[in-house]
Amino acid sequence: AWHLQGCPFSLQVLAYSRHTYATVSQRLIIAVIPAPGGDPPYQGEFLVGNRNVEELLPVVAREMFLQASAGVWERGDLQVINITSALDRGGRVPLPIEGRKEGVYVKVGSHSPFSPCLESAVSPQSLFRCSLGQQPLASCYDTFAPHFSIRWCNLTLLQVWPSPTTPGPVWGSGVLEDDGDFQPPTEVAPQDLLPGFLVTLLVPLAVAVLLCLLLGHLMCCRREGV
Asked: Which residues form the Sarcoglycan alpha/epsilon second domain (predicted)?
């Protein structure tokens, strides 16, 4: 929310336990501040298949994920931008067997370009292999394993550039400038509205009279014995 930067606002969080279905609420005061150096223009979104969203919210888990991302990104200025459950992206609820997880989308950003490993993972050749059910091309060692199981066929790379700001209105002195004498608009020639009025009034009246005559004829002159 760009318009909330620098202004604290209140956010009420409502959570429930997936085991007991007990609910708890907490109100948080959050202050949105601009990111140092601006938003990272290079952003990559990874799908972690062996985690739930609450398992990646702690700081320790996010730092571990950033270290693993730095190994394939070959950069050190990474930061987590967003964490979203795969259920919010149309994923299915996993079966309660074998400890299966929901899956988490983690978006990571950097001010440095993507590594050749990431670019090869989203190349047309890799997408073709994914369509065949095969592993995509990757020219680097998977530093996410064994803690994070990345589904490389769901990798998304984005380049986000800041949009130019639109200049705001320029306030003047509040006094109208002298632009000569006022020129009133050209006068409109008077129109004859009587024909339109007669048509609007007489046509429905004539139709009503005809309907009354027809109804009277049917009710009075078409009776049995008349």
From this structure: 41-157
The set of residues, in sequence order, having a beta carbon less than 8 Å from that of 63 and lying 6+ positions away, is: none
With a CB cutoff of 8 Å and minimum separation 6, the contacts of 157 are: 42, 43, 44, 45, 114, 118, 119, 122
Nearest by Cα to 155 from 116, 125, 111, 123: 123
- What pTM did the predictor assign? 0.60
Dump pLDDT digits (tens) for 44-67: 999 998 898 889 989 999 999 999
Tokens of 87: 């259920």
Q: Is 101 left (phi over 0), alpha (psi -120 to 50) or beta?
A: beta
Task: Give me the domains of the chain, ranges plus CATH numbers.
Answer: 37-159 (3.30.70)
Query: Can you tell me the distance from the alpha carbon of 62 to that of 79, in angstroms, rounded to the nearest whole number?
Result: 9
Helix (H, G, I), strand (E, B) or coil at 158: strand
What the block records as the tokens of 83 is 């964490």
- Mind listing the pLDDT tens digit for each residue in 202-224? 999 999 999 999 998 888 876 66
Q: How far apart are CA 174 and CA 22, in angstroms?
A: 60
List the beta bridge partners of residue 216. none
d(CA 35, CA 100): 35
